[in-house]
Design goal:
This protein is mostly beta strands. The protein has one helix and eleven strands, in the order βββαββββββββ.
């Protein structure tokens, strides 16, 4: 697995783990190259509150419509085809006082990512 930093130039639509969403994603072949990938909260105690990308034109709005608790996953899909593979990613975590704490941005080649794993102090992908 590769260590990541990330900001995306793509607009994304979030598909939150429903049966309908999962069946449509299975047809998209499940790789970043095809515009589909899954983020996984691989922590024991932390909640993901934000997922942001930047393609060089500024940070996206939060892709998540709901928080992602420990051990949970969310399927993601680019809303526009043909975007840049090299992205910057930033993750927001629920702070102790309820606010959002942002990780340092990391770079990723989203076309190589089918799964993005959000750990306590790093991000990996395969």
């Amino acid at each position: 697995m590769a260590r990541l930093g990330y900001r995306a130039a793509f607009s994304f639509a979030v598909i939150l783990g429903s049966v309908v969403g999962l069946s449509s994603l299975a047809n998209a072949e499940g790789t970043g190259k095809n515009g589909v990938f899954t983020i996984h909260n691989d922590t024991d105690d932390n909640t993901v509150t934000g997922f942001y990308t930047n393609d060089g034109s500024g940070w996206s709005t939060n892709w998540l419509s709901r928080s992602l608790g420990p051990g949970k996953s969310s399927d993601m899909q680019f809303s526009k085809p043909g975007g840049k593979c090299k992205q910057r990613l930033r993750v927001g975590w629920k702070g102790k006082n309820g606010g959002e704490v942002l990780d340092d941005p990391i770079n990723i080649d989203i076309c190589d990512a089918s799964n993005v794993y959000l750990h306590d102090n790093e991000i990996t992908y395969d």
